[in-house]
Amino acid sequence: MHGTTMPHSDSSVSLSPFFEISATAYGRGCIATSDIPSGTILLECAAPLGACVIRPFRKEVCQRCYEYNGGKTLKFRIENKKGSIYFCSETCRASFEEEDNESILRSCLFDLEHWYRSNSCEDNYDDEKKSLEEAWSEIEAWEQEILKTKRKSHMVPKLTETEYSDIIYILDVMFSQYKGTNELELSLFVKLQTNEQDKVAKYPYLLKSYTRMYKYLKLTCGPQLQPFITIDNIRRIIGTSLTNAFGIWSSTVPGEDKEYFGCALYPSASFFNHSCSANVSRTRHGRSISFVTSHPVLQGEELCIQYGNHTTEDYHTRQKDLKEWFFECGCKKCEMRI
């Protein structure tokens, strides 16, 4: 189960007829309101609030439904001289175009690809010696300076491959905020706990990366998304993704390693705590994700998923991996050190 640093919200939130959000020994969690048979669908999330496909797979994984083409370049795309956005089918391409009917998101993605091709750099940051508040205060001062500058193209920072992917995710969340159509997920997003401070404390070099991404967005995005490029909002988007976003993984046959394609954020699913002997499994169907009981659950029992992509590791390996979520697991399996 997770620690008290994990996201939680008001107990009044009602997401499912099968559970309620209640206080637990570890914060908040999903508690069964009745006996639940195995195979029961507890929660279905139709679409993520934000998602990204990492750059190495951008030609092989559909931008819309995350279908993998087995290493082959996808045939359907939207393109211009700056770049291309790839899809598995005409249906997915049309769905993307319908949602992005003002060409806001695609313009940002084209600009990002064009900039990265000519202005990329390596992940070789030195540890940042500044505090979070000091670094973001400097960004506030920087914003005042750029208001006085007419030519800003020379101020756009170079990007690493990791930043390229992270910016896609940030753009996607901001685009959802701009559209305002996913009201439930948007309302829950602002309640998620950010782990920015914990992450930067563990990996100080990330602070420079976060502020560089902010500068890129501020200097390149069009007027429609500018209202969402505030220090508070970008910090929240970054900070909440660190321990709330779900990985987008390939579907494989037993015995094969899964491929990591990117991540997707479903705020309504962030109330499920972790257990190494989880009683809830999750399955992705294109853009949607469903949570289903993997065995019978009794009334009053907590409904837990398994964080990450780990199922067979020993106790010490699991504990090491779970530290990325900033908690120590206290489930029965870990109590027995199995």
List the helices and strands and how they pair.
Layout: E1 19-24, E2 27-32, E3 41-45, E4 50-53, E5 76-80, E6 83-87, H1 90-99, H2 104-119, H3 132-146, H4 161-179, H5 183-189, H6 196-202, H7 206-220, H8 231-244, E7 246-249, E8 260-265, E9 273-274, E10 280-285, E11 288-293, E12 302-305, H9 315-322, H10 332-335
Characterize the structure shown.
The chain is α+β, with helices and mostly antiparallel strands and 338 residues long. It has two domains: 19-40 and 280-336, no CATH class; 50-245, no CATH class. It contains ten helices and twelve strands. Helix 4 crosses helix 7 (206-220). The chain is globular. The two termini are 15 Å apart. It comes from Meyerozyma guilliermondii (strain ATCC 6260 / CBS 566 / DSM 6381 / JCM 1539 / NBRC 10279 / NRRL Y-324). One of its GO terms (cellular component) is nucleus. It holds the Pfam family SET.
Unreliable parts: 1-9
Rounded to an integer in angstroms, the radius of gyration calculated over CA atoms is 21 Å
Number of strands: 12
Mean pLDDT: 89
Topology pattern, helix = H, strand = E: EEEEEEHHHHHHHHEEEEEEHH
The main pleated sheet reads as:
4 strands, mixed
Intertermini distance = 15 Å
The helical percent reads 25-40%
Question: How many structural domains does the protein architecture include?
Answer: 2
Portion of residues in beta strands equals 15-25%
Computed structural class: alpha+beta
Please report the number of helical segments. Answer: 10
Spatially, the strands of the biggest sheet line up as 1-2-12-9
Global shape:
globular
